Amino acid sequence: MQPKIMSSDQVFSDKIKDVADFHFGEKVATVFDDMVGRSVPFYHEMQRMIAEMAGDFAVNGSNVYDLGCATGTTMLHLDSHVPEGVRFVGIDNSQEMLAKCAAKLKEGNFTRDHELRCADLNQELQIENASMVLLILTLQFVRPLHRDRLIRNLRDGMNENGALILVEKLIGEDSLFNRLFIKYYYDMKKRNGYSELEISQKREALENVLIPYKLMENREMLLQAGFRYVDVFFKWYNFSGIIAVK
User: Fold this and answer.
1) What is the domain extent for residue 42?
2) Reduced 3-state DSSP string for the chain
3) I need a surface site. Which of 60, 77, 215, 243 has the fewest CB within 10 A?
4) pLDDT (tens digit per residue) in 101-129
5) Tens digits of residue pLDDT in 35-70
């Protein structure tokens, strides 16, 4: 069977008169894998690291939650690393993303016990019997007003010694580094084939939708929620990966 060709991200390639807020609809879902691969530094290496850590924290008979599961990339990566008795729960607020996820899991011969659920993380969310919870480039899209409550709810629904993995875009700790890190990030996007127009229009679309915190603010939020251990496992300019253990 011929490998499936990934659809190329051209969502912002044409001039848009009035740029609307970014939305994970059908147009984005179709090209999401290409978009995230070209827009997130070391995305595939982070996925490998997450799966590696899952091998040490996912427990037989428990649930692994992927919040903002998108097209199912992370669940597919975890498949060969976690015990057979683990049940996967993928949650996303986009029906289009969930449809893409279901098709991709089927195509990837994902036979694990799993559930795909449409839910808004800004609303009340309860989880149970969780040995792992994943927030991979997801919390940054939750309104700041609701983030503390969400993290506390996740911690409450996790088993003892369960792990939460948080990957986020960041604000620099001060204006000097923030400005430099954003410049380096846009340089990376240009190297990956994005034009100035695409970068500018996507930035405008995300302005009111993606609201990043500083690294220390994310760390403090996890500690305040009651996690015992919090550490950084990945850092590239204005992107970071954090693991927290209950």
Assistant:
1) 26-245
2) CCCCCCCCCCCCCCCCCCCCCCCCCHHHHHHHHHHHHHHCCCHHHHHHHHHHHHHHHCCCCCEEEEECCCCCHHHHHHCCCCCCCCEEEEEECCHHHHHHHHHHHHHCCCCCCEEEEECCCCCCCCCCCEEEEEEECCHHHCCHHHHHHHHHHHHHCEEEEEEEEEEEEEECCCHHHHHHHHHHHHHHHHHCCCCHHHHHHHHHHHCCCCCCEEHHHHHHHHHHCCCCEEEEEEEECCEEEEEEEC
3) 60
4) 999 999 999 999 999 999 999 999 989 99
5) 899 999 999 999 999 999 999 999 999 999 999 999
Render pLDDT for 162-221 as a digit per residue (tens, 0 to 9): 999 999 999 999 999 999 999 999 999 999 999 999 898 899 998 889 999 999 999 999
Q: How many domains does the chain have?
A: 1
